[in-house]
Amino acid sequence: MSETIGFLLNDTARMYRRAFNARVRDSGITALQWRMITYLRRNEGIRQGPLAEVLEVEPITLSRMVDRLVEAGLVERRADPTDRRAWLLHLTPRTDALLEGIRPTVDRLAEEATEGLSAAERDQLTALVERVRANLSRRICQKDQKETA
After folding, report:
1. H helices within 43-118, ranges in order?
2. DSSP H/E element including 90
3. Which CATH number fits the domain that encloses residue 94?
4. How many structural domains are present in the chain?
């Protein structure tokens, strides 16, 4: 029996997270924290609520994650000038050093995960998975719009 694309992607992501966590354990961050830092790097100054939605975690879960990263000196909360109840999240300069230190491990994991694939096949795989993600993202956004209308 052939597995569905959803099963394969989910199972592969689970295995990737496990391998990532095992390799960067000494750094003090997890795969989910790495994802959060990556999103923060792309969306510096995002509020916690929208970041929780993107990461698909409960706001309280994100708040605890942010607390740990603040304590580690990797993230800082800044007051939102437009809403005194909200916080904007920013990476600290210390995060750059952490990311640079972990980058070789992340690159090696990616190499191992795509072992046996040519450079063209790796590029194609990335493009195809990005297209699947875009398709799902579009449908999720359309569904959310219909539900709020």
Report:
1. 48-55, 59-71, 93-113
2. strand 83-91
3. 1.10.10.10
4. 1
